[in-house]
Each structure stands twice: as structure tokens, then as C-alpha cells.
Amino acid sequence: MNKRDPHVPNGVRLQKVLAQAGVGSRRLCEKLIASGRVKVDGQIVRELGTRVNPKAVLHVDNQRVFVDDSHVTVALNKPYGVISAMSDPEGRETLADLLVEYPERLFHVGRLDQNSEGLILATNDGELANRLTHPSYEVPKTYMTTVAGIFTPSEVKKAREGVMLEDGIIVPDEFIVKDEHSNRSLVKVTVHEGRSRLVRRMMKELGHPVERLVRTRIGNIFLGKLHSGATRAVDGDQLAQLMKMVGL
């Protein structure tokens, strides 16, 4: 099957589109094209006279280039008690209440249960949202959890080797006891699955129910110093790397 020619006779010169997207000067963009470092809709383009659809999917060195400002992806620090939804028939506070400054229709990426806190992403790119939550892409997610009790060495070993739950075994990518105090443990857990309440169920099975759970990372996006209830844009190289993780 022949690939579709990325050249569009009435389109915009590729080097101009790249330059306007902030890749570099027109001359630099021409060098990138000529050296085979530019893809248009998945195809390497070396011809400097190529004209493209301004909405084509462009990559430079396999990193996504955004050619307009219509794409919106946002990192949000979900507070305790907020519902991971854009609306709620019971009138409870939702993610939409925290995203009122964004007029675009946003999809939330995955969810955190009502009693959990931390990083959640929202985007107007439905395909990005789908891929970030699809198990085949194995996007890692990190949680800091405060749990009841002190872990024994054998319990830590069991956690790292895998815990059997009712819907299958969970083997965390990372399980580190960071601190112990007043019969509580602070544990860092990284998983790449998106099963419902996975970390809470794992801890309960280990005999250490969760008292507080905060998600601190999704892929290459970290919660950092983002305050509870606050948002920040995910863009530039950070967004490009996130896209790359899920093949976009």
C-alpha cells in the first residue's frame, strides 16, 4: 500500500511551517529537512520545495512539533475530595471547577479517586488522553503514600515480587519505604498499570491500609511545587516528550 504523499500543492512550504513553530531560523529548518530529520505525517521529507498542510503532524528528530496554539494540555494538582470528572449529577466539586480558565473542552487523563490527591492531566487531544491511559503504552505513574504500620523486610520483599489482587497480580516498578514514624510508613510506589484503586488495594492486601495517597508523576510530568488546586500548562519539550512516550 502506497503512503500518502505529504506534498500539498496549495500548502505552506515546510521550512516556513517549522520556522513559525519555533524550531529555528528558515535556514536551519532547511538544513534539518535536507538531512532527513523531519517527518510529515510519519514520512521523512527531504525535498525543500515540499508544501504541507499547516495542520499536518510534524516531527523533528522524532520529537513532535506543534504548529499552532490550539493544543492544550494541563497539569492539575487535584485536592482531596474533588471528583475526577468534568461534571457530577450530585453537585460535588469536579475537575471542571478547577479548569474554568480554559475555555476549551478538555478530557481528563485517567482518574484519582475522591480521597486521593495529586497530579492529573487534562487535554483537548482525545488521542493523547486515550494513549496515556491505554495499558499497551505502559506509562509509569508514581505515588507517595502514607500507610498504617511499619513494613517488615519480608513485606517489602513480597510487595516488590508481586501482590495478588482479585483482578490479577500487581508487580510495582518501584516500591521504596522512604520514612517510618509513629507507626506509619511513607512509601514511594511506581506502577505502569491503570487499574482502579490499584495502589490502595495493594497496600490493603499487604496489611497496611492507605491513609493518604498523592500522585506525583505521570510519565515525564512531575507534580513538583504545584499547589493544591492549581494548574500549569504542559507544553514545549515537555509536551513533545510526553507525546513521544505514546507514539504521537
From TrEMBL:
Pfam families recorded: PseudoU_synth_2 (PF00849), S4 (PF01479)
Gene Ontology annotations of biological process type: enzyme-directed rRNA pseudouridine synthesis
PROSITE patterns linked: S4
Cited InterPro entries: PsdUridine_s_RsuA/RluB/E/F_cat, PsdUridine_synth_cat_dom_sf, PsdUridine_synth_RsuA/RluA, PsdUridine_synth_RsuA/RluB/E/F, RsuA_PseudoU_synthase, S4_RNA-bd, S4_RNA-bd_sf, TruA/RsuA/RluB/E/F_N
CDD domains per the UniProt record, alphabetical: PseudoU_synth_RsuA_like, S4
GO MF, one annotated term: rRNA pseudouridine synthase activity
Alphabetic keyword roster: Isomerase, RNA-binding
Keyword ATP-binding: no
Catalytic activity: a uridine in RNA = a pseudouridine in RNA
Family named by the database record: Belongs to the pseudouridine synthase RsuA family.
Protein name according to UniProt: RNA pseudouridylate synthase
Lineage: Bacteria, Bacillati, Actinomycetota, Actinomycetes, Actinomycetales
